[in-house]
Design brief:
Number of strands: 21
Shape: flat
Distance between the termini: 121 Å
Mean pLDDT: 81
Low-confidence stretches: 1-9, 341-348, 592-605
CATH class of the largest domain: Alpha Beta
CATH topology of the largest domain: Rossmann fold
CATH superfamily of the largest domain: P-loop containing nucleotide triphosphate hydrolases
Largest sheet: 7 strands, antiparallel
Helix content: 40-55%
CATH architecture of the largest domain: 3-Layer(aba) Sandwich
Length: 655
């Protein structure tokens, strides 16, 4: 006999022997027996059968036999291993040197592998479910025999793994279905007919047949409780009369409706044992005959009671509607009155004038009001900077939100941060509760910082961050608050001089100077003095209960000629004093009292003019040298390119 014939008989003997060894076994018992017998047949040191995980990147071992005894199950990644080629799927064998071919495979290194053979496990559709592989610590003695054996047993293992996966999926589905049924709020009941009902019978005969042959085939506990039973087992098998009496005309009518509709799905409300039920019914029809009926029932008693209560409350609300409407109208009138009082108190919209300077100011206000840009309002004391801020806010999209005012000069240095940013309870001695800061309160609206130059340098740094990031931390808190605030700032001082003196941060100065609005002093808008005087006379007269109606021509001429170092505020106060002292209906008071002792006006240049003059004086001292250690840029502590850009903007040219 030839060697080939002996090898074939030996192969057949091995296959037959090990097929019998795993015959009749399923699940883990099958896989454990399979790896044990394959290890013996192939004289392998390590045999593994594993399932491919859903991510297709890992193998989870189902059974392992190695190094003389069964080892614990494991899971490993496919990347960089010969198994990654097996699951493509394809049969792979490496008679020798497998560890050198796959140096990243930790499993091969752990078992000191030399030979490797692997076969994929396929389901009935040809999809790879996993693999089976054998590893030796020496070269494979017969690679062809190893591949053939693995192919044969991989087919049986693939079928077993597919069956195992199917059983697991089925068990999971059954568990989910039972959980839904058990925990559902609705009662589910299946009523079956012992003899199917022909749909061709007359209506009365169908009704008799239905009552005679229908019983409860299955239900859940919720359905049993709805119909007065403790559990489902007590209701299953009961006749139809138990849950719906034939003497109930409403139920009989519902049955007739089901017969007429051909047992299509329907939903009705029903009262049973004092409870309201919402019931859905659907018939199962096969070959023109009614086989069974599925019914779901939800207890809506509490819902109906709530609906009745809502209807009662609606009636009660309707009865009070007329009263509420009357109260609303009264509140609207009161609110309008209060708003008028507030506007009168705070001079809302009380800007008066017609001079060219005044028109320029109002045009600038209208331009900046529609934006969210930061505005720096400059001007001498008493020129009406707060009125300008209020006008910008009232004309802006934020007018429905508050304009929050802060006089920085009136807050002590120790409390200014708490006033602006708020504090949490316990932030410092005396902080017994949380305080909302002005920035948080003004979110969505506008914050007006009057006399902004009086802020301490530490607070200026924090203010700069709020302007840039629109966020801050309250004093004593590590929680960042986001705000949406438009900032308006005002000052009667020269900010450029304060920056040079180190009393105001340069970065904050340029951050505030987005849109400058300069309020002209009263001496530059003398044409407005008659209008302002008339306005103040009328308002103050009403306030003081006097009947002053006019100003004499002589006094009006003196008012126009006077320089008014205190600006509009000084004019208003002078007229108030004159009205108090006026004996008749015409003001005719000399201005000598106003002029005596009045401080001289600070006719300061505009910020732009001051900046231009300072840069020109520095350039003159350097002989118009800009760069270098002795250049103007170094003296001004500016980048040379920034200085050139500033010179172009200010119109500075070398003579």
């Amino acid at each position: 006999m030839s060697p080939a014939s002996e090898a074939d008989r030996s192969f057949e003997h091995i296959v037959s022997e090990y097929a019998q060894a795993v015959s009749g076994k399923t699940g883990q018992a099958f896989f454990r027996s399979l790896v044990r017998h394959l290890a013996h047949a192939l004289d392998a040191d390590y045999v593994l059968v594993g399932a491919l995980q859903p991510d297709a990147e890992r193998i989870a071992a189902l059974a392992v036999h190695g190094l003389g005894s069964e080892t614990a199950a494991l899971e490993y990644r496919l990347a960089g291993t010969p198994s990654a080629l097996v699951v493509q799927p394809r049969v792979c064998s490496y008679p020798s040197g497998v560890r050198q071919l796959f140096p990243q495979d930790d499993l091969l290194a752990a078992v000191r592998a030399e030979g490797y053979v692997g076969s994929p496990l396929l389901d009935s559709s040809g999809r790879c479910l996993g693999l089976i592989c054998a590893i030796t610590q020496r070269p494979l003695a017969n690679p062809q025999l190893a591949e053939a054996l693995l192919k044969i047993f991989a087919t049986r293992a693939g079928i077993e793994l597919e069956r195992k996966n199917y059983e697991a999926a089925l068990a999971h589905s059954e568990e989910r279905f039972r959980a839904f049924v058990v925990h559902a709020n609705e009662g589910v009941m299946w009523c079956k007919l012992e003899q199917p009902l022909s749909m061709d019978l007359p209506e009365d005969e169908q009704l008799e047949h239905f009552f005679k042959y229908t019983y409860v085939a299955d239900c859940n506990d919720q359905a049993a409780r709805i119909f007065g039973f403790a559990r489902a087992e007590d209701l299953i098998g009961a006749r139809l009369e138990v849950v719906s009496s034939r003497s109930d005309p409403a139920f009989v009518e519902r049955l007739r409706a089901g017969i007429r509709s051909g047992w299509e799905s329907s939903q009705v409300e029903r009262t049973f044992q004092g409870r309201d039920l919402l019931m859905t019914r659907s018939g199962v029809i096969e070959n023109g005959k009614l086989q069974s009926v599925w019914t779901t029932a939800r207890d809506i008693t509490a819902l109906k009671q709530a609906e009745a209560e809502v209807l009662r409350l609606n009636e009660e609300l309707k009865s009070h509607l007329e009263e509420l409407t009357s109260l609303k109208a009264q509140l609207e009138q009161d609110n309008a009155y209060l708003l008028d009082e507030i506007r009168s108190e705070h001079n809302l919209g009380d800007m008066v004038g017609a001079s060219p300077k005044f028109r320029e100011l109002t045009e600038r206000i209208q331009l900046v009001a529609s934006t969210s840009a930061t505005v720096l309002i400059t001007g001498e004391t008493g020129t009406g900077k707060e009125l300008v801020a209020r006008a910008i806010h009232n004309l802006s999209p934020r007018s429905s939100r508050p304009l929050v005012k802060v006089n920085c000069a009136a807050i002590s240095a120790g409390l200014v941060e708490s006033e602006l940013f708020g504090h949490v309870k316990g932030a410092f001695t005396g902080a017994t509760e949380r305080r909302v800061g002005r920035f948080e309160y003004a979110s969505g609206g506008t914050l007006f910082l009057d006399e902004v130059t009086e802020l301490p340098l530490e607070t200026q740094a924090k203010l700069l961050r709020v302007l840039q990031e629109q966020e801050f931390e309250p004093v004593g808190s590590n929680r960042t608050l986001k705000v949406d605030v438009r900032l308006l700032a005002a000052t009667n001082r020269n900010l450029a001089d304060l920056v040079r003196e180190g009393r105001f941060r340069m970065d904050l100065y340029y951050r505030l100077l987005v849109v400058p609005v300069d309020v002209p002093p009263l001496r530059e808008r003398r044409d407005d003095i008659p209008l302002l005087a008339s306005h103040f006379v009328q308002r103050v007269s009403r306030q003081f209960g006097r009947h002053v109606e006019r100003i004499s021509e002589r006094m009006l001429g003196e008012l126009v000629a006077y320089d008014w170092p205190g600006n509009i505020r000084e004019l208003e106060n002078f007229l108030a004093r004159a009205i108090v002292l006026c004996p008749g209906d015409t003001l005719d008071m000399p201005l000598l009292a106003a002029e005596s002792g009045a401080p001289k006006a600070n006719h300061s240049r505009s910020l732009e003019a001051t900046e231009r003059k300072h840069i020109e004086s520095v350039l003159a001292t350097t002989g118009w040298l800009i760069e270098g250690p002795k250049g103007a840029a170094a003296i001004l502590k500016m980048n040379p390119s920034t200085l050139r850009s500033r010179m172009r903007r200010l119109g500075i040219q070398r003579p």
